[in-house]
Automatic annotation (TrEMBL):
Annotated ranges, domain Signal transduction histidine kinase subgroup 3 dimerisation and phosphoacceptor: 215-279
Region called Disordered, residue ranges: 411-435
Entry protein name: histidine kinase
Residue stretches spanning the membrane: 20-41, 53-73, 111-142, 162-187
GO MF, one example: ATP binding
C-alpha cells in the first residue's frame, strides 16, 4: 500500500505531474488558435462552452504545435525540463539543438506528446478535483443535493448518496493514476526521442578522448620538464650546501647551474601551458629537442654532481623534429631517474640503425636514494611517447645495471594525434620486465 501511494503521490510523481501541467500550459496558445479555426467552421462563437468543441480545438492545435517544435531551442529547453522534473539522467538526453531531419522528427514527436498528454492531464487537474471534493462532502450539505453537480437522477437514492464520498476518493485516485502513468510513459520515451543519436555519442566519446589525451600530454610534459629540473636543482643545492665552506668555486658553478636550469624551465613551463591555452599552439619557448639542447641537458645533469658519459653516433640536427623532441624527453627522463634513484655514473648512447633511432640510458645499480612520494610516473610517460611514435621500449635491471632501451622509427606514423578512444589514451605500462 505504501509503495502504491509513493508511486502515485511521491516526490518523483509530483514533479512529473508538474511537468505535465507545464505541457498543458504550453498547449493553451495552440488550443486558442485551434478555437479560431473550429469556431467559424461550426458557427459557434464560444467553443469553450462545449466540451466536444474544446477537444476539437485541442486536436486542431496539436499539429500546429508539431510544426513550431522545429524551432532550434525546442530540444534544449525540453531536455532541461525533463532532466529537472522527470528524473532522467542528463547523459541520456541531448544538450544541443536538433541537427538532422531524424532528430527534428523525434523532437517534434516528443513535443506533441508532451503537449498532448499535458493538455489532457492539466484539464483533468482543473476539473476533476472540485467535482470529486463535492461528491465527498455531498452527504454533509443538503443544499448540494439539488445542484446539477449532484446528478439528482443518480444520487437521489440513499445508497448512492452514502457511496458518493467513496466515489469522490476513487475519482481522485484515478486522476493521480492517470497523471503518474502519463508521467512514467513520457519519462520512458524521453531518452529515445530527446536522447543523443549514435553519432552524437561517438562525437562525445571522441571529444572526451581528445580531452584526456591533452591532459595526459600535459602531465607528461610537466613531469618530464619540471620534474627533471626540480630534481637537478635539489641535488645541485644539496651538493653546494655540503661544500659551502671548502669549495667556493664549486658552489658558484652549482648556483649558476641552478639559475640556468630554473630560467630554462620557466620557458618550458610556459610552452607546456600553451597546450592548455591554445590547444597544441606553442608558448613563448619552443619545446627542446636533441638538436637544440642535448649538450645543455648533459651539462646541467653533470652540474648536479651526476657523472654522465654520452655517445652520440648520429647527427641530432638530421632527425625529424617530432622524433628529436620526444627523444629529448626520453633521455631527460632516463637521466632524471638516475639522479633521483641511483646516484651512480650514467652512460647515454644515441645512434641510428635500420631506420630507427636507438636510445640507451644505463647506470650501475647502486644504493637507491629515498624514493620521492608520488613518483613513479616517468616510465609510463616514456611508454606513452614511444607508443604514439610506433616504437618499442624496455626498462629494468640488466645484470648489475639499470637500462632504459628505446627504439623510435625515423619515419613517424602519418598521424601522431591523440588516440581516438579514452581507453587508448590511458598511459600503458612498459613491456614485461620494465619498471
Amino acid at each position: 500500500m505504501r509503495e502504491a501511494l509513493r508511486l502515485l503521490f511521491g516526490g518523483r510523481a509530483r514533479r512529473r505531474w508538474v511537468h505535465l501541467i507545464l505541457g498543458g500550459a504550453l498547449a493553451m496558445p495552440y488550443v486558442l488558435v485551434g478555437s479560431l479555426i473550429v469556431g467559424p467552421l461550426t458557427g459557434v462563437n464560444d467553443v469553450f462552452q462545449s466540451l466536444p468543441l474544446q477537444l476539437g480545438s485541442f486536436a486542431v492545435g496539436l499539429p500546429i504545435a508539431t510544426a513550431t517544435s522545429l524551432f532550434p531551442l525546442t530540444r534544449p529547453l525540453e531536455s532541461a525540463a525533463v532532466r529537472a522534473l522527470c528524473g532522467i539522467d542528463g547523459d541520456a538526453l541531448a544538450h544541443g539543438p536538433a541537427g538532422t531531419r531524424a532528430e527534428r522528427a523525434r523532437t517534434a514527436a516528443w513535443f506533441t506528446l508532451h503537449l498532448g498528454f499535458g493538455g489532457i492531464i492539466a484539464g483533468m487537474s482543473l476539473a476533476v478535483p472540485p467535482f470529486a471534493v463535492a461528491l465527498m462532502v455531498l452527504p454533509l450539505f443538503a443544499g448540494l443535493r439539488h445542484s446539477p453537480l449532484a446528478l439528482p437522477g443518480v444520487l437521489g437514492h440513499g445508497w448512492a448518496l452514502a457511496l458518493s464520498p467513496v466515489a469522490g476518493l476513487a475519482i481522485l485516485l484515478a486522476l493521480a493514476t492517470c497523471a503518474a502513468g502519463c508521467g512514467a510513459l513520457l519519462a520512458r520515451w524521453a531518452p529515445a526521442l530527446l536522447g543523443p543519436t549514435p553519432e552524437d555519442r561517438l562525437a562525445a566519446a571522441e571529444a572526451r578522448a581528445a580531452d584526456l589525451a591533452v591532459r595526459n600530454r600535459l602531465a607528461r610534459e610537466l613531469h618530464d620538464s619540471v620534474g627533471h629540473a626540480l630534481s637537478a636543482v635539489t641535488l645541485q643545492a644539496s651538493a653546494a650546501r655540503r661544500v659551502l665552506g671548502s669549495d667556493p668555486e664549486f658552489v658558484r658553478e652549482a648556483l649558476a647551474a641552478i639559475e640556468e636550469t630554473t630560467r630554462r624551465t620557466v620557458g618550458e613551463l610556459d610552452a607546456v601551458l600553451g597546450v592548455l591555452r591554445d590547444g597544441d599552439a606553442p608558448g613563448t619557448a619552443p619545446a627542446p629537442t636533441l638538436a637544440t639542447d642535448l649538450d645543455g641537458l648533459l651539462r646541467r645533469t653533470r652540474a648536479a654532481g651526476q657523472p654522465v658519459t654520452a655517445t652520440v653516433a648520429t647527427d641530432p640536427a638530421a632527425l625529424p623534429p617530432l622524433v628529436s623532441r620526444e627523444a629529448y624527453r626520453i633521455v631527460q627522463e632516463g637521466l632524471s631517474n638516475a639522479l633521483k634513484h641511483a646516484g651512480t655514473p650514467v652512460a647515454v648512447r644515441i645512434a641510428t640503425a635500420d631506420g630507427h633511432l636507438e636510445i640507451t640510458v644505463e647506470n650501475v645499480l647502486g644504493t637507491a636514494r629515498v624514493p620521492r612520494p608520488g613518483g613513479g610516473h616517468g616510465l609510463r610517460g616514456v611508454a606513452d611517447r614511444v607508443r604514439l611514435l610506433g616504437g618499442t621500449a624496455q626498462a629494468g635491471p640488466s645484470g648489475d645495471a639499470w637500462r632504459l632501451s628505446v627504439r623510435l622509427p625515423l619515419t613517424t606514423p602519418r598521424t601522431t594525434a591523440p588516440p581516438a578512444t579514452a581507453a587508448d589514451a590511458r598511459p600503458r605500462p612498459l613491456p614485461k620486465g620494465s619498471a
